[in-house]
Backbone:
C-alpha cells in the first residue's frame, strides 16, 4: 500500500483559523477552524487532490523532505500522510444516487415483494456489462 507524506503549510489567520496549502501539490488548498481540525482537513484535501491527479493521468509529485525557510517563516509546517490506494478504493466504491424510470405496474409489483432496487440494478448492470466485482 502506497503512503505519501507531504509537508503542509498552515497559515494562521487573525481569528484562530488556518489556511492550508501544499507546496508539492500546486492548487491544493484547504481551511481549518483551528489547529486541531487542520490535520483531518489537510489529509482530505491532499487525498482528494492526488485522486484527481490520478483520474487526469497526471504524475504524482514526490514529497519534499524539507521546505525553504522563506516560505515557512511565520507558518506552521505539518507532515500529512495520505494513502492514495485506500482513498481511491473508498471513492471508487462509494454509493451514488441515480434516478430510474419504470412502468407503474412494474414498480407496484416490485414494492409488493419489497425489492431492493439498488441491489437489483447493481447486479443487473454487472451482468449486462459482463464485469467482475
Residues:
Amino acid at each position: 500500500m502506497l503512503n505519501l507524506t507531504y509537508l503542509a503549510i498552515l497559515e494562521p489567520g487573525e481569528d484562530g483559523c488556518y489556511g492550508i496549502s501544499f507546496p508539492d501539490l500546486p492548487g491544493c488548498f484547504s481551511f481549518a477552524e483551528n489547529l486541531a481540525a487542520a490535520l483531518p482537513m489537510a489529509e482530505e484535501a491532499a487525498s482528494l487532490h492526488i485522486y484527481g491527479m490520478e483520474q487526469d493521468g497526471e504524475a504524482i509529485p514526490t514529497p519534499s523532505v524539507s521546505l525553504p525557510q522563506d516560505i515557512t517563516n511565520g507558518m506552521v509546517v505539518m507532515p500529512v500522510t495520505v494513502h492514495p490506494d485506500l482513498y481511491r478504493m473508498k471513492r471508487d466504491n462509494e454509493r451514488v444516487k441515480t434516478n430510474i424510470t419504470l412502468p407503474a405496474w412494474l414498480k407496484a409489483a416490485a414494492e409488493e415483494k419489497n425489492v431492493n432496487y439498488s441491489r437489483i440494478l447493481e447486479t443487473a448492470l454487472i451482468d449486462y456489462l459482463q464485469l467482475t466485482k
